[in-house]
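Person: Please comment on this record:
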Amino acid sequence: MINIIKQEIEMETALKNKIEFICSFCNTTPIIHNGSIRTIEHTNLSYVEPHRIVIKGITYLAFNYEPNVYVENLSKPIPLSNLEEYIKSLN
């Protein structure tokens, strides 16, 4: 039997504060789900699950100490400094 061990990763306080600050300018409240590390027991396989931030029904992915957030998947990065403009352009 395969056993997957999940260990939650707390979102860095500075990152959380930046996202909440940006969302306050967009008149919205983000829903933040912490990421995790998933490890398959008795192997050297691990997966880092990013933090998920839901803003106006769209899921953004973020990693601690990473300057970008990603829209829906890791193929579309947006610099955190441009997140406010991106959210406002969705209206």
In short: Helices lie at 13-25, 83-89.
